[in-house]
Amino acid sequence: YLDRLRDGGFPEDSQEFLVAMTNQLGLFLKNSYFVDDLKKSVKKLKNLDSLKDSFIQLMIHELKTPLTLLSFPLQLLEKDDEFLAKHQKIVSSMKKGEGRLKSFIEDISFFLLVTNHQGPPPLKDRCNLEEFFKRALNDLSEIIQEKNLVIERNQVSLVFQSHAEWTYFVVYRVLENACKFSDPNGKIKLDIQVYPDHFQLEVIDEGQ
Fold it and tell me: Partner of 169 at 20 to 30 A CA spacing, among 32, 58, 141, 200?
């Protein structure tokens, strides 16, 4: 066939058809090589992603060990009034370090949770917004007391279906950010508006 094609043995329209088929076959082979390379790249990425998850999980585990070793002695020291009277600054510094380490571990855990989830979070939990705020303010009580912050907020009664861990993380981080950047003796105002299909949280602080 190729000899006849070179020698002009085929009619002109047949030659055009054969040339077109040859070009299409070349494109098909080129694309098949591309698909094979793409599959190999995807497999490598999945392997790397799996290694990333394993590394992060190991790091979380390894960080929890020093956190436990720090938290337990702190609990004992905080019960010793005589020691606290003499070493209040040391204990406060240790508490800050414990809080930063705990926050770092929570951030990594949340990152792992979010990156491994495809699509929107499952609305699997019955959540109480008021309880989230109480819990977050309790978890932030140390920085609130240390900076002598005044928290003003309207209380709302809202129970909804959501992902409890994700929702609390968002509420906590918004409040934590306001506390961190507020000036000492400042005021933080939380305004919560509830709508039929969502709620809106507005945070106003006096930080520079």
Answer: 58
Q: Which residue's entry shows tokens 């609305």?
A: 123
**Bridge partners, 192 (sequence order):** 201
- Contacts for 127 with CB less than 8 Å, ≥ 6 apart: 159, 160, 161, 162, 164, 167
Q: Which residues 6+ apart lie within 8 Å of 107 measured at CB?
A: none
Given a contact cutoff of 8 angstroms between Cβ atoms, the answer to whether 138 and 168 are in contact is no
Residues 137, 144: contact at Cβ < 8 Å?
A: yes
Three-state SS for the chain is CHHHHHCCCCCHHHHHHHHHHHHHHHHHHHHHHHHHHHHHHHHHHHHHHHHHHHHHHHHHHHHHHHHHHHHHHHHHHHCCHHHHHHHHHHHHHHHHHHHHHHHHHHHHHHHHHHHCCCCCCCCCEEEEHHHHHHHHHHHCHHHHHHCCCEEEECCCCCEEEECHHHHHHHHHHHHHHHHHHCCCCCEEEEEEEECCCCEEEEEECCCC
Six-digit token string for 203 = 């945070």
Q: Contact, 139 vs 169, CB < 8 A? A: no
Average pLDDT over the chain, rounded to an integer: 79
Q: What is the model's pLDDT at position 28?
A: 72
pTM of this prediction? Answer: 0.56
Residue 156 contacts residue 118 (beta carbons within 8 Å): no
